[in-house]
């Protein structure tokens, strides 16, 4: 591919719009005559609905309707689908998830009714007047307790609250390796329940076109074609052409905005029934109680090693907390998705994984930045670090000994890695780490009464997301070139990076290109954003569309220059034959330039990195300060290094947040104790050091750009690295293991309970 704009750190074009207040978000949107929606939610974690009386609410000023589950069921409305139930020892159990609760509620925050009124204030007032009589039932919030005999039964069709029992790998080979191992390391591991907390909450604006008998849904989402498919086929039982779904600017997604939520369905239904547009915007508390959570994986993992510290086998017996329902992709996160990254960057001959998906009386769990792959990386890295301490090996050395170095490499659970600089990342980190100076830094910390620790770790991402992608490239009458893509930006910088690629291929200025996305009305097909797929899948499709456009242009240019197409040379936006030249604009004037492709691509690519963190711990309070973070990462060919670093740093900030402070907590009755930002702590700028990301390029051959994807990587690396640094600081105090988050209280209790 010609050199030019690819590889340059061009400033984000979209930032001018955002920084000058010209971004368009749904909370600011409106339509003439629209109604405002407010959802009535369950205050109980588990209860029978004895009666629901909306008469008083319907009589209040401005109220136009109150929707309940009973009337929606009578109208034949479908249930919310789960399309990621994994293969299981027995068929997975996926209970019906109604848009509004019918006979029972199963978590605090479950929607029970929706109020439609002329103003938001009227809707909120009326929501408080909806009278619901509940008969409370026993609740269970811990997934391990949910499996115990006598535990409350959440779904009668799911004995033991079991949704699925997923198993993968070679159990016999794994057990044989453990039997012959010189060393065995075993750890109880928890990837605590967290929430994505995007800056912009979920929102939607729904309309009904009576003449066309079709819906229009504008929503803050990152997977529009999937939403349209589910709405049309699973919920409303109509043709997809009768549902248009589109999105304005989306203020962060992190997986949460991939899914179909009850509020979108309710708004569409109400818009048709009432003949008026309907707007719903979530309150911050509703995002804690009514969206989805992430992670929530618990269990025991073990590792077998030989006398030299080489890994022989990895085994894990885990429990996945699904919450009250099998959400859209939730059951697949700790099964199919996690499998692709099991073993990380290491050559592990045998792996056996068992995961049980368990229902609890909590908010459903679904894909959150990485979706199973952070959990897989955390597992192998924590075990390796414990093994290094047990064997008396250096943390980088044990990783160096086990890193995959020969490619292609077939992992024990099936992933076929085409390339990777896994060992080289470790070597480069070693060269940049200044570990020789750590002793001096530790002594300086000790002189101030602080404990200092250094932690290392690696990660291996498996980027793909949903397979296949669509793109169309079209020259417009105003001189611009539209780049239409089925992928979607929710903050990554697509309006900058995709034009860079097209500018290189077509020899035109990046400013001429306009990204068109996030609208099923103009985008034929698309799998949105998720799984770090946009550049790998979307970029691949766009390259094929540009190539198809150039083929058409070449044929037209040959006709204009009266020569064979193969005689032409293309460069700098023009075709030439000797001293005769015709540019793309002239070609377009002769015959419109427009090409589209559906690119079938199911390949996975493998970003990777080696990371280091240093922390200080105050032994008097347990407070942890992250002093330093260094990452050496390979994301393949770099289209825009500045955007790549920004994406990596953002993911690292989320991973650091999980390591040190983030956790959703329920009490024994199923009431959420961390239902607002007063109680759910997230990292701020002052909590983070300068995050140093060093980029190394090893292009993959699995797409023509050589890119590997960066969106999820930081979340996969930071948790284990920060935990290792804290444990290193606490090692002189006898602390060997801690579960996240490493809050001041957690660390203080560990120090003084040893």
Describe the SSE topology.
Layout lengths: L13 H6 L15 E7 L5 E7 L1 H4 L4 E6 H6 L29 E2 L5 E7 L2 H10 L1 E6 L6 H4 L15 E8 L1 H10 L2 E12 L8 E7 L4 E6 L4 H13 L6 E4 L15 H13 L3 E4 L2 H7 L3 E12 L5 E13 L6 H10 L10 E10 L13 H19 L3 H8 L6 E2 L5 E2 L4 H11 L5 H10 L3 E10 L8 E7 L5 E5 L8 H13 L6 E4 L17 H28 L7 E3 L2 E4 L2 E4 H7 L3 E6 L8 E10 L6 E11 L6 H20 L30 E6 L16 H18 L13 H10 L1
Parallel strand pairs: 1-12, 10-11, 14-15, 20-21, 27-28
Antiparallel strand pairs: 1-5, 2-4, 2-6, 3-5, 7-15, 8-13, 9-10, 9-12, 13-14, 16-17, 18-26, 19-20, 19-25, 22-23, 23-24, 26-27
Helix pairs in contact: 10-11, 11-19, 15-16, 16-17, 18-19
Describe the structure.
The termini are far apart. The model has no long low-confidence stretch (mean pLDDT 96). The protein folds into four domains: 14-23 and 465-599, 2-Layer Sandwich (Aldehyde Oxidoreductase, domain 4), CATH 3.30.365; 31-137 and 212-282, Aldehyde Oxidoreductase, domain 3, CATH 3.90.1170; 139-196 and 292-416, Aldehyde oxidase/xanthine dehydrogenase, molybdopterin binding domain (Aldehyde Oxidoreductase, domain 4), CATH 3.30.365; 418-463 and 605-754, Aldehyde Oxidoreductase, domain 4, CATH 3.30.365. Helix content is 30%, strand content 25%. The chain has 754 residues and is of the alpha+beta class. A hairpin with a 2-residue loop joins strand 22 and strand 23. A seven-stranded mixed beta sheet has the order 3-5-1-12-9-10-11, with helices on both faces. It has a five-stranded mixed beta sheet with strand order 7-15-14-13-8. The longest helix has 28 residues, at 534-561.
């Amino acid at each position: 591919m010609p050199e030019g704009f690819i590889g340059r750190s061009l400033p984000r074009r979209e930032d001018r719009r955002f920084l000058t207040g010209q971004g368009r978000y749904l909370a600011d949107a409106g339509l003439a005559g629209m109604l405002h929606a407010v959802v009535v939610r369950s205050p109980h974690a588990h209860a029978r609905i004895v009666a629901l009386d909306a008469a008083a609410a319907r009589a209040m000023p401005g109220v136009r309707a109150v929707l309940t589950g009973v009337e929606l069921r009578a109208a034949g409305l479908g249930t919310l689908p789960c399309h990621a139930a994994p293969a299981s020892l027995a068929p997975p159990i996926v209970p019906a998830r109604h848009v509004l609760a019918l006979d029972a509620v199963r978590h605090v925050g479950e929607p029970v009714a929706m109020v439609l009124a002329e103003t938001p204030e009227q809707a909120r007032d009326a929501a408080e007047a909806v009278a619901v009589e509940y008969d409370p039932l026993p609740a269970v919030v811990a997934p391990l307790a949910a499996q115990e005999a006598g535990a409350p039964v959440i779904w009668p069709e799911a004995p033991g609250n079991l949704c699925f029992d997923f198993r993968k790998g070679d159990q016999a080979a794994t057990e044989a390796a453990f039997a012959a191992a010189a060393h065995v390391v075993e750890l109880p591991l928890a990837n605590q329940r967290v929430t994505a907390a995007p800056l912009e909450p979920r929102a939607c604006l729904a309309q009904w076109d009576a003449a066309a008998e079709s819906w229009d849904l504008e929503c803050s989402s990152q997977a529009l074609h999937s939403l349209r498919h589910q709405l049309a086929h699973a919920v409303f039982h109509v043709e997809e052409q009768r549902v248009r779904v589109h999105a304005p600017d989306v203020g962060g997604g992190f997986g949460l905005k991939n899914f179909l939520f009850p509020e979108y369905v309710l708004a569409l239904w109400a818009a048709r029934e009432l003949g008026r547009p309907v707007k719903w915007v979530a309150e911050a508390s509703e995002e804690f109680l009514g969206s989805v959570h992430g992670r929530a994986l618990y269990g025991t993992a073990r590792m077998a090693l030989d006398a030299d510290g080489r890994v022989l086998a990895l085994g894990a017996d885990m429990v996945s907390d699904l919450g009250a329902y099998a959400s859209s992709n939730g059951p697949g996160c700790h099964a199919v998705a996690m499998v692709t990254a099991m073993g990380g960057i290491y050559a592990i001959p045998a792996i056996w994984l068992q995961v049980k998906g368990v229902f609890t009386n909590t908010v459903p769990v679904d894909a959150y930045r990485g979706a199973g792959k952070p959990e897989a990386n955390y597992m192998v890295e924590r075990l390796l670090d414990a093994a290094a301490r047990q064997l008396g090996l250096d943390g980088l050395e044990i990783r160096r000994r086990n890193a995959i170095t020969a490619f292609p490499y077939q992992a024990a659970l099936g992933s076929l890695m085409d390339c990777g600089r896994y060992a080289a990342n470790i070597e480069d980190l070693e060269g940049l780490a200044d570990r020789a100076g750590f002793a001096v830094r530790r002594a300086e910390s000790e002189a101030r009464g602080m404990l200092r620790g250094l932690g290392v770790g690696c990660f291996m991402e498996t980027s793909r997301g949903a397979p296949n992608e669509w793109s169309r490239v079209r020259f417009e009458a105003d001189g611009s070139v539209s780049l239409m893509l089925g992928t979607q930006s929710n903050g990554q910088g697509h309006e900058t990076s995709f034009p860079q690629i097209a500018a290189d291929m077509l020899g035109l200025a990046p400013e001429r290109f306009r990204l068109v996305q996030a609208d099923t009305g103009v985008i034929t097909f698309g799998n949105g954003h998720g799984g770090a797929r946009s550049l790998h899948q979307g970029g691949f499709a766009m390259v094929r569309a540009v190539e198809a456009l150039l083929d058409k242009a070449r044929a037209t240019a040959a006709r204009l220059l009266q020569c064979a197409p193969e005689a032409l040379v293309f460069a700098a936006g023009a075709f030439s034959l000797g001293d005769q030249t015709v540019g793309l604009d002239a070609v377009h004037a002769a015959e419109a330039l427009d090409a589209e492709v559906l690119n079938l691509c199911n390949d996975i690519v493998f970003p990777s990195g080696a990371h280091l963190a240093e922390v200080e711990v105050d032994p008097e309070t347990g407070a942890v300060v992250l002093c330093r973070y260094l990452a050496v990462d390979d994301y393949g060919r770099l289209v825009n290094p500045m955007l790549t670093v920004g994406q990596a740093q953002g993911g690292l900030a989320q991973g650091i947040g999980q390591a040190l402070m983030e956790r959703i907590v329920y009490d024994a009755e199923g009431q959420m104790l961390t239902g607002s930002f007063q109680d759910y702590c997230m990292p701020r700028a002052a909590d983070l050091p300068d995050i140093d990301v060093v980029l190394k390029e090893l292009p993959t051959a699995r797409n023509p750009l050589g890119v590997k994807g960066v969106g999820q990587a930081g979340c996969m690396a930071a948790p284990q690295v920060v935990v290792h640094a804290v444990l290193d600081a606490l090692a002189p105090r006898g602390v060997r293991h801690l579960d996240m988050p490493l809050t001041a209280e957690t660390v203080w209790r560990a120090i003084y309970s040893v």
